[in-house]
TrEMBL record:
One of its GO terms (cellular component) is cytosol. This is Uroporphyrinogen-III synthase. InterPro entries: 4pyrrol_syn_uPrphyn_synt_sf (IPR036108), 4pyrrol_synth_uPrphyn_synth (IPR003754), UROS/Hem4 (IPR039793). Belongs to the uroporphyrinogen-III synthase family. Its EC number is 4.2.1.75. It holds the Pfam family HEM4.
Amino acid sequence: MHVLLLKEPRDGDSGPDPYIKELASHGHKATLIPVLSFKFVSLNTLSDKLFQPEKHGGLIFTSPRAVEAVKMCLEAEERREEWKSSVKDKWNAKAIYVVGKATAALVRNLGLNPLGEDTGTAEVLSRVIIEREDTNIPPLFFPCGSIKREVLPTALRENGVPLETLTVYQTAEHPDLEKNLKNYFTEKSFFSPSGVKFCLEVVRRLSGEHLTQIKFAAIGPTTQDAMTAEGLSVSCAAEKPTAEHLAAAIAKALQ
């Protein structure tokens, strides 16, 4: 089975993407095409807030890009040394909440201790935060993207947990998305879109009358909801956004 992964490649150069590796272990030939491109913004404001941990009750990261923005703020040697010598320990005295193992790994690389990596979704993480936090804490700081879902902020607000958000990256369609899809496209493929709104129009145009022959797989429940809202029939969805859960979902769907 050919599997086309519409997602971002893993960060760094520490071997093959885990989704490609896991699907290969199940006998699938997987190809990864990036869907999104990112532009980082408000880094000066982000840096100021990172170096004033006393003003916040903790940190929330729901995407690798937000952690990457923090890393960019630490590129200057003097900032990096200050972070290592004192600032990161002040943050580690508070809660550092994350969604997903990939984000958690990047947070650890910053010297921070993540909580919630097994939650899998913002909905589940919000429940963890609400259970752990008081309403009288300083606001939790949430660096995020321009098209973040409002599930977590809404849940925290409705339960009285103070939150401060800052948009640190903007999301757009990857400039080579359509070209890469044209080069790859086949009649029967699994798609696991991270950017449904950016790739669906291209997929529909390229597949034409063969759209109903394609089996669509979602990388997690959030993506499944987005695909269903666009009228797609989703063959399977991973219980959590991990390579193992996606491979298991595809294997079950093919039985």
